[in-house]
Design goal:
Blueprint (H helix, E strand, L loop, with lengths): L8 H28 L1 H9 L8 H6 L7 E2 L5 H30 L5 H39 L10 E2 H18 L2 H10 L5 H6 L1 H15 L4 H21 L3
Parallel strand pairs: 1-2
Helix pairs in contact: 1-4, 4-5, 4-6, 5-6, 5-7, 7-10, 9-10
Length: 245
C-alpha cells in the first residue's frame, strides 16, 4: 500500500470522478471516429457475418442467406449511434483498463501489486480474444441456426435491424467480458480470497458450468456448444495457473 500522502474520502471520490471522466473521454473520441466511418463500421465489420462468404461459413461448409429489414422510422439512426458507442468501448478498452489500474494501484500492498499488474496487462488481450471468439464463432453459428430454423413452411424469417444488433451486442461484447474471468481470479488470488487448491477441487463443477454457459449462449447444435466450451474451460485452467498459491 502506498506509504505516501494519505488521501481523504473526498480525494478518492475526486480521483474516481477523474478516472471515469478520462475513460468516457477515450470512449467518446473513438465513438466519434467510428460514427464518421459508417460504411466501414457496418458493411465491413458489423454486417460481415451476414455474408455467405464470411470465413466461418466457408471453413465449416455452412450456408446462410439473410437480409435485414427496418420497421421503425428512427431505428437506423439510433442503431448508428449505439454501434458507434459500442465500437468506442471496444477500441478504448485498453485505455479504460489502464485508468482503472491507476485508480486502484495506490491502495494495493507491495506484495499484491505485481500479481494485480499482470492481471491488468492480460485484461485487454483476453477481452479482444473473447470478442474474436464471439464474432468469428458464436455469432455466425447462432445466426446460421436461427435463420434456418422454422416452426412451419408458411412462416418466413424477416429479421429486423434492431433484433440483429441486439444479438450482436449480447454475443460479441458479452463474451469479451466473460473472457475477463482469469483477470478476476488473479486479483482475488492476490488478495488471498481464492486459492489454487480450491479451484482444482471444483474442477468438475467448472466443467458442468462451462457446458451450461455454452449451451445457453449457443443454442444451435452440439458442435457450436463444444467450440465455445473449449476456450471457456481453457480459461478456467489458465486461471488455476495464475493463482499465486
Amino acid at each position: 500500500m502506498d506509504s505516501g500522502k494519505q488521501m481523504t474520502f473526498w480525494d478518492h471520490l475526486e480521483e474516481l470522478r477523474m478516472t471515469i471522466f478520462r475513460s468516457l473521454l477515450f470512449i467518446l473520441v473513438f465513438a466519434v471516429v467510428a460514427f464518421c466511418f459508417k460504411g466501414i463500421l457496418f458493411d465491413k465489420l458489423i454486417f460481415a457475418p451476414l455474408s455467405p462468404s464470411f470465413i466461418t461459413y466457408r471453413l465449416l461448409g455452412l450456408d446462410l442467406s439473410m437480409k435485414l429489414i427496418n420497421v421503425e422510422i428512427s431505428s437506423q439512426f439510433f442503431v448508428h449511434m449505439s454501434a458507434a458507442a459500442a465500437t468506442g468501448l471496444v477500441v478504448a478498452f485498453p485505455f479504460v483498463i489502464y485508468e482503472l489500474w491507476r485508480f486502484i494501484a495506490p491502495a494495493l500492498y507491495d506484495s499484491e501489486i505485481r500479481s494485480v499488474r499482470g492481471a491488468f496487462l492480460l485484461a485487454s488481450g483476453l477481452f479482444y480474444f473473447g470478442v474474436a471468439v464471439g464474432f468469428f464463432i458464436v455469432l455466425p453459428l447462432c445466426l446460421e441456426f436461427f435463420v434456418n430454423y422454422s416452426v412451419s413452411s408458411i412462416v418466413d424469417n424477416n429479421i429486423t435491424l434492431s433484433s440483429y444488433m441486439s444479438l450482436f451486442y449480447s454475443l460479441v461484447i458479452v463474451i469479451g467480458l466473460v473472457f475477463e474471468f482469469p483477470m478476476l481470479i488473479t486479483i482475488l488470488s492476490a488478495m488471498d480470497l481464492v486459492h489454487r487448491d480450491g479451484l482444482r477441487k471444483y474442477r468438475k463443477h467448472a466443467i458442468v458450468a462451462v457446458l451450461v454457459i455454452s449451451a445457453i449462449i449457443t443454442p444451435a447444435d452440439p458442435l457450436s456448444m463444444i467450440i465455445l466450451a473449449i476456450p471457456l474451460y481453457l480459461l478456467f485452467e489458465f486461471s488455476v495457473i495464475l493463482c499465486r498459491k
